[in-house]
Specification:
Layout (H helix, E strand, L loop, with lengths): L2 H15 L6 H25 L7 H28 L4 H35 L7 H30 L4 H24 E4 L2 E4 L9 H32 L27 H13 L5 H14 L1
Antiparallel strand pairs: 1-2
Helix pairs in contact: 2-3, 3-4, 4-5, 5-6, 6-7, 8-9
Amino acid sequence: MSALTKFFRKKQEKDIQNGDEDNRLYKLVSNIAIIGVFVSVAILVLGIFKIFEMNSFIFGVVATIAVLSIACFLLLPWVRRFGKGENKKISLVFMSLIIACAVLWLVCVYMFIGIYNKSKVDGFDAKSLVTPLNFVKATLIISMQFLMASLVAETVIRYRKKMIVFQAITYLSNLFFDFYITFFLGCLSITSKGMALSSKAKILGNKFMVVMFVISILYMAISSAIMKKQEAKRFTLAVQDNYDIDGQKRSKDQKTEEVQPVVQSPEEKLESLKNMLDKNLITQEEYDKKREEILKDM
């Protein structure tokens, strides 16, 4: 079995576990994201080994596929909820914001492709990069805000009042990380003379700020891992009769009704017994003994 087949089989098992096996929209977006990654990587590898020439057209195709794949990955949490009919309005808002960011990044890609094609005819001019680089800077700032807002909103909706401490740590870490990156980009000046940081950026080089930035990244990763582990534990508990989806014990009224054993009539018992004898599953002696017991109970 190939690695790709194993990957898709594992993904299918995870979709079933999360209740997404009937969510067609989610499956479509997730497949587009995964296939897009494989296709873009394959094209790059073929280009590196000079199977074909990497020109501006090929680069544009790869960049477009990569941007769309990343956008699809970011869309997945909201597509899952929208496909299940949960939080449809909020899901539509964040899906629209993510698509808008993807469009902005595509504009960035084709601005650079246009400059590259023009430079082959008229020669390279460093001043022509000023506008595209400033556009990339603005796009990066906007994308950061939308991404952080999406992460926070998705976490709030998913966990609600559960694991408040870890949620608080995650939100504060996200806020500081967002502030640090946005402030850095805001201090970055891009002109025809080059790039430069304003004097305000010195605050970011402070040891305290650097340490807090590193801690915020670690806290985001650790808190996210712990919350996902706890969520997986709740799913495991949910399959047990005495627990609900939140990991709380069910009341007597909530417990799943036990399946009552099927009571066979004497005629059905005798028929089953005869079938077992015909299939040599029991001996004649065992058949006679059990038949006598059934007849006595009648």
